[in-house]
Amino acid sequence: MTVSHHPPITAYHLDNPDAGVSVEGHSGQKTSFNGRSIQVVQVGHAMLRVKLEGGGEETYLITLPTLHIDGLWYGSPYIELAHTSYIHSTTGFTATINYAGKGYFSGKPHSFTATITRDSNPSEVLLDVAGSWTGVSNVRGGSLLPTDSVFWDANAIPREELSVKPVEEQGELESRKVWHAVADGIRNGNYNQVSREKAKIENHQRKLRKERAEKGVEHQLQFFDYIDNDTEYAQLAKPLKHIPDESHSYRFKRDKEPPRDEPAGDQQASDK
Q: Which architecture characterizes domain 1-167+222-272 according to CATH?
């Protein structure tokens, strides 16, 4: 769901009640071009929550890696992850994930290394993993899993297909309905249609923004609450030295949750 247009920010919430797992967060992008690739710095974070069988809940702060769009010179662009992301939990463990790609003379595409440490003893590596995030990764050391064993094989698990309602059954603010004509134009190579339909959406948003300004009405997000200086984020981010100590968040409004037997689709809200 788009919660801000300037700057562009998307908030999301995914929930699996049967498994007791949910994740929500937000992501914005700052892009730059270095002559060989497009660098996309992702601004935001995610919170993963796991309900325990005996009661209680574990929470995991997940920071976002930088994206590189490489292969532009060859006419075959692809996405590569770069730099470092972290996963820090209320259980007192931290995963540090370093991403690297293929350079001109060395390296392999889609590579990563990762370690798990305990906050009380960060110098002791409990798990050391390396490999490909699109393929196979293996354990290199640590006491949690046998060395040289397979940690993750991305090809061994079939991908789940996203299930949403047909466009004609979706609400007026759902992304696929809002951008349906634009997406059709892109797929069909009709860029006059893309430009025309995109302008319609943007002009409608400008009109709504102007009307709110004239009435002195502040825009209210329909599906999320804006949390300034999120204390939950600050608590989990504090032990991590390389990320901001403070951040805002977007919290899903529980009263907007769809019925269990209906696919939620994805929502598009007007910008702030």
A: Beta Barrel (2.40)
